[in-house]
Every structure is written in C-alpha cells, then in structure tokens.
Amino acid sequence: MNAEILAVGSELLLGQISNTNAKFISSQLSELGINVYYHTVVGDNAQRLEEAISIAESRADLIIFSGGLGPTKDDLTKETIARHLGVTLEFDDIALTYIEQFFAKRGRPMTDNNRKQALILAGSEVLANHHGMAPGMILTKDERTYILLPGPPKELEPMFQFEAKPKLSAMLNTGGVILSHVMRFYGIGEAELEVRVQAILDSQTNPTVAPLASDGEVTLRVTAKAETEQEAQQLIAAKVAEIQALVGDYQYGIDDDSLASKTVEMLLDNQLTISAAESLTAGLFQSELAEIPGVGDALVGGVVTYTEEAKIKQLGISKKLLTTHGIVSSECAAAMASAVREKFDTNIGIGLTGAAGPTAHDHQPVGTVWIGIAIGDEKPITYLLHLSGMRNTNRLRAAKFTCHYLMQLLEERGFKKR
Amino acid sequence: MNAEILAVGSELLLGQISNTNAKFISSQLSELGINVYYHTVVGDNAQRLEEAISIAESRADLIIFSGGLGPTKDDLTKETIARHLGVTLEFDDIALTYIEQFFAKRGRPMTDNNRKQALILAGSEVLANHHGMAPGMILTKDERTYILLPGPPKELEPMFQFEAKPKLSAMLNTGGVILSHVMRFYGIGEAELEVRVQAILDSQTNPTVAPLASDGEVTLRVTAKAETEQEAQQLIAAKVAEIQALVGDYQYGIDDDSLASKTVEMLLDNQLTISAAESLTAGLFQSELAEIPGVGDALVGGVVTYTEEAKIKQLGISKKLLTTHGIVSSECAAAMASAVREKFDTNIGIGLTGAAGPTAHDHQPVGTVWIGIAIGDEKPITYLLHLSGMRNTNRLRAAKFTCHYLMQLLEERGFKKR
Which of B61, B306, B313, B334 counts the most CB atoms within 10 A of its CB? Predict the structure, then answer.
C-alpha cells in the first residue's frame, strides 16, 4: 500500500504554521509498514485541490487528507472530494446530535455552517472526533482508500491513532512488521558520532540506521522489517549491540527518554535528593527536572541567584571569592553547589553560572559556562563548557549538560542506572 | 510569480522531522508578494523526484528545492535537476576551496563525496553557504526559476534570507507590496475572540485577518496588499484600530513580542525589580523572564520551593497556614509572594503554587493554580486558575498567566506600558 498525505489549508502555504500533521501521520504509517511517497499541501481552493487529488490518485492507493472539514466557507475538502468522486454528502445523525448538543449546552444559536460539519461522504465509515465537532471519514472506492481528518492536531492525532489506524491495520494483509528503536546520545556531536559508526551507516540494509540531531542531542533510529515481531526485535537487538560497542559511552536513553527523565529516574531509584543554585539558567534546570511527574521525592528546591548581590546574600558566597575568581568561574560554581546543598539539606547540590549571551558577562565570552556538582560532603566537581549557540540555546544546553555530567558522576560512584 | 516548494528527503516521509523549511520559505515569499500554491515532499529517489519536478513545472514558474545537496549517495537533488534540464554540473572554485580548507584545518582526509558538494548547475548563480559546506544556487531556464537550498534549517534560513531573497526581490517587477502585522492576545480563548471579531472576519478582503492559536495565546495576522508601503501601512492601521475597539483589552503585544519580553520591558522601563517563589512551575517563570537579554536589571532571583518543607524552611511560611488553608491556596500563594519579596528585597514578589498534574495535589484537582503578586508593601493580590491541559502545558500556562496579570496590575497602578 502506497500512501500520499494531502494537507489542505492556505495557512500552511502562507507559512503561518508547519505541516506537523504530515509528520505525525507519516510516522504512524511507517509503523504499519505503509510507504509514504509524497506529501502535498494545497490551499483552500477547490480547483487546485481537485487537481492535487487527481495527481495523488495517479501515484497512491491510500490518500489521507488533513484539514478543511470545519464550518467556514474556506472548508471545502469534503465537498471537493464528493464532486470529484461523484458521491453525495449526507448527514451523519450521531455527529449532528453531538453538534446540536454542544450549542444547546452553551445556549448559543446553531448556524447552518455548524450543521455542515456533520455532513459525510455517502458510503463512508465515520471516524469519531472526541476533541472537536467535525467527524472524520474513511471511504474505499475503485480500489483506492480515502481518509479525511480534521486539521487541528489535537483532533487529528487521537482520531488517526484510535479510529483510523486500527481500520488500516485490518485492511493490510502484509504478514510482516516494521519496528523502530531510537537510541539517544548526549555529549557527542552529530558529525563525530557519524564518523564513529560510518561503517554501519554505509552497509545498512535491514535494519536501517538513521541519524538525526536536534537541540544538541543526537539520535540513531534503528528500523527493522521482518515476518514476525520477534524476528524484528532480534534484528534490532543485534544492530543496537554493534552500535553500542562503538559509541555506547554516550548513550543516555532510548525512545521517548529525555535527559531530565533519566536523571529523575536515577535520583528516585537511588533515593537521592537534589537542589540547585542557578544563575544563567535562572530556574531552567530545576524546571526541566520538574517536567517529570513524581520528581517531588527528589527535587526539594533551590535558588535563582541572577545578580551578584543575590549570590552573596542568598548563598553566602564571599565577595572576595567573586572578586578573586570571578562570577563565571569554577570556584563560584563549586561554592554555589555546596551552599545550596547545605541550605536545602539535600544529597546533591548543583551550581550553574555562565555567560549566556548576547554579550560577555564578567569578562567571560558568550557561551562560557561552569557547572558545579556537589555530592554529599565530597569536594564539588566542576565542568567547563564552551557553547556556541544563541542565548537560550546556551541556557538549555547548560541544563542538559548538567543532567549528562550528573548521571556520569553518579554512575562512577556506583549508583544504579537502569 | 507563482511558487512551489519542493522538499527532498526520506526523513520527512518517514515522519522523523517536520517540513519547517516550507513554513519558513512560505512566510518569506508571502512578504515578497509571491503566491505559493503547493508544497511537495518527495523522498531520496531520483525517479519520483523527477516526476515531482515535471508536475511542479506544469503549475509554477518558481520552484524552490530544499535538501539533497549533501555529500552522501542519498543526496541527488542537483544530479536529478541537471539531468532533467539537460545542463551539466561543474565545480565552483570558491565552494571547493572552502571545503578543502575545512578538511585541511581538521587534518582529516577529504573524500570525493565531500568534493561533490562543490558541484553546481552550469549557468547557475551560487548562493553562498556561511553555515555549512554545500552551496545553494539559482538558475533561470525557459522562463522558469529554480532555487536549490540545503536541507538543514540553520543553513537554509540565512541562505534564503540574505542570498536568495534579494535576488528574487530584484527579479520581481510587481510595483506592489504585501505587509503583515501580527496582533497578540492573552487571557481570551480562540473561539471567544473569533466570536467577538466575527463581523470583521466575515467581511475581510484587503486587509485579510487570520486568527491562529497556540500555547494558550491567540494571534490575529492582518495582511494588506497595496501599491506602496505607506498605503499598506494605512490599510493595516485602520483594521487594527477596528479590532482593538472590540478586543483591545486582551492585546499584549505585536509581531515577535512574547508575554515575557513585554513583562521584562515594562519592569525595565519602570525600574522595577522582581523575585519569585515557585512551586509547581519550579523555576519556569524566572527562566521565561531570563530568556530576555538585559533582564538582570529587573530579575534579582528567587527560590524554588518544591516540597512543603522547603516552603517552611526557605520562606518561613508557617506550618499552621499550610495546614489550615492548604499548600494550593490563595493564602499560600500570597505568603510566598510576600516572603520572597522581602528575602530578595525587590519591588515585586511572585508566588506560584498549584497542582500541575498528572495527579491531584494537596486535595486540589489537576489544573488548580494560585498566583500571588506582591507589589511594594501592598497586601498581595491572588488569582485562581483552572487549567485543563497536561502537566507541562499547565506549568507553562501558569507562568504566562503570571506575566499577563502582573502587566495588568502594573498598568492599573499607573506604571507606563509601551
């Protein structure tokens, strides 16, 4: 089965939003083993949409539409497909009742425009919309399947995943599976990682191995096709072992892991508490940890000491240390880490100070960051970063490197890591 | 001039990344008044790419390619276009020298693959790449213009903006301009805002008015076409005034403003200092403010008090208050705001406490948030939110609402707002 994804919406062509729906649907279809050969975006224009449909029909047997199912005049996906295929539109009773109730509850009059959303292609099967008013639909005609989905991602994503995907899966008679496994790396650049696994990248067939970099992290996606799930798992496991032999030191997680989620997991597993004193990151490190539910058993809290005065007054760092060594210094990061650990009575204390940009700070060039990590009564360990990004990229990288180094340190000290 | 954007890369069709390049190029072309009628994405496959080129040629006179200019075997955009147009590929001396120097500096051998990146279409003009090795190019043949850009956004965006756009602008002889102006709103839902400006949305011609919602914010993009820039500015100003008469109370900024940037601007303009005590947001409010350069003159710092113990020990909040009123309460938010303001000796103190999710906190349902704002010696004002998002959406909304309410309060007290 070869698919094309056809997004309808002038806001995409005006560059107001990205076509994230195509990304989402593509990754879902890839899990089903359905090849996607084209994405097309067309505006709210019936003639151009119909031409795009004809082209899609010439090269795909599954066409998935997103957008244009709403109540306004601009929404013309259904109407255009109906005319193109020569099928009529008819009201779906369930969808109509749902829309009527929606307006009745709010005491607002329901216009004909809203009623229009309950129209479906005759002969199609409805895909329920649990997050909006416009139902989706799936129709097979002349051995070609058409799926219509609403544009807003919060409606489209659950509708595809829970309504359309099971139907597609049932239609497929592939007898095979495609599985993907994502390996996540930190502390190594994309170029350097690719050089180290070059032989694997060059010789890949099945599994395939695809590198991708974003936000300073690098991932390798290992994808295997096989007759059975077990066989695919075995192919992946063998390739993962090969890769780990080369760059395993930099791998911090898999699939949906994040540096923060792995750090919190390690803290909770080892019953360790943490606090942080942040200058350039100004709370971002703690906020990243707090993205993870359950963090309250590890993160006690911390301080943001953005000014020199705050560092002195809130953490008791001596004016002399700041004058002698500077605010952006190993000594300052270490003192911040120790002070916050004592103040919050935690196992671990973190100190973060640096020049985020856009201008130098305390005579240190933009991108200079010192991270201090105090574990128990040990002398704090400090790390120097030279980052090359813009202000907020540097702040985020500083927070991520803190997770990376903290996990390394804890592992070296024998704390368990999943 | 009608354009089509043709992105080349199997990673797009596999759903590994979004086609953000198409969004970027589209918004740039819209500024030039060039209509974009289609986006197409095709994989790293010469035959399908050539078919896509033929289709694009049948409906566009400007075709902009992204991706497929790199060193690997998968990169075949240039080669395919060369064959399709019947032009040869030749080495560009400047690009070749740049690549050779890159490898010489690093003492690494340069392979033929890397050399390949310096090949350009005969007769094309080179678009310099200041952030990578592969040059872009622009070629006009048979009254149709082809622009080839590299895939990585950090290479493509500056190349388009500073190399390709001026050339396109010079080629255009439109005698007209298109200008856009974005109005930014907070504290009002998209549906509610649309209802209030319904008459304007229904009757729009020139300027057009397009609503868009994301991350709890709503924007209206007002776009005018006119003979001169001045005329377009006048059209926009008149429409903006009409809109402001209806929903001006909720507008916080324009264009690239953010709630944080407007808040920091207002604090700096009025020489006000701020500190914050954060629980559910765990530093996110302070970190959002710290995204803005120059914030150091306003943000002194603050505390993250994630646990009950930290609230008592670090802020001196009484155990009795927490037992009587609860951790997620107006009283607690007010006490946090007052305590942090005194501790950091600032004009303004912020207190944030709530149940971010995924489970209830202190018997309060997920999404319950109390914001406390203490200005000078005034009794703190508190605000209650009932948010309906997931954990981290709720945390971000709480930080954004804090900016929104703080600006309102300061304006009410006569502090100047730009």
Answer: B306
